[in-house]
Protein: Deoxyribose-phosphate aldolase
Organism: Phytomonospora endophytica
Amino acid sequence: MTELSTLLSGLPGVDRVGADQRAATLATRSIKTTAKAWAIDLAIRMVDLTTLEGADTPGKVRTLCAKARRPEPSDASCPSVAAICVYPSMVPVAAEALKGSKVHLASVATAFPSGQAPLDIRLDDTRAAVAAGADEIDMVINRGAFLSGDVQRVYDEIVAVKEACGKAHLKVILETGELATYDNVRRASWLAMHAGADFIKTSTGKISPAATLPVTMLMLEAVRDFREATGRQVGVKPAGGIRTTKDAMKYLVVVNETAGEDWLDPDWFRFGASSLLNDLLMQRQKLTTGHYSGPDYVTVD
């Protein structure tokens, strides 16, 4: 057994019933009115505003970039989002549209969403996205290799992609909905972090289930324990299915109660989302004015 296999097999097993119950309990906690405005602005700052469709056009990407920079054009106090996330072919368009802003440019690479392409092609995909302006890369692991027990291959591929990223940050997508067990989620999290991930991400958003509170809680436990063991802090990004402010508030509570306040920052926690931002803006406006605007108040993504 390799050193890596020994490390992963030595991780404690996950009590699935206990994990589900704890996540459900945390989900019942609310953020009071006095803190809600702060939490909504924090959630906006944590959004990776995403469009990953075959029908994406340069015009759609430019519009999304404008929304990322100024989510509420009539209110200068509304913060910008953390990043735009697009396919590599759209990186040059997004890079031009985001020029001069503090919004990061993320791109999915490595044969997203399947990860089923030769490694040299995935590495070329990564280098091309970075060369075109991406400063964050969201890669997918080879779930087939992981589930068949070839963890060394998965580790080596993450290391290679991390090197191909250069100065760009690397988010490693586990696709937790395909990992089958909570034990696998924990092992994949530690594997990705040891291989150099800057973030671990739940999902591509292309399969169901995508992000869930219990899985995100397990990943937050992993980054907390990894920092305690190694001194290195790693971020977490749930993606897929997080659509409402109520959902986002539940995740922020889980972040605070599981990993701690250090992770309540866009540098360490992100939401991979498209429609979530619209609801955050509507709730923000409700807090400011006392009423909701009509359905055309925000753009439909």
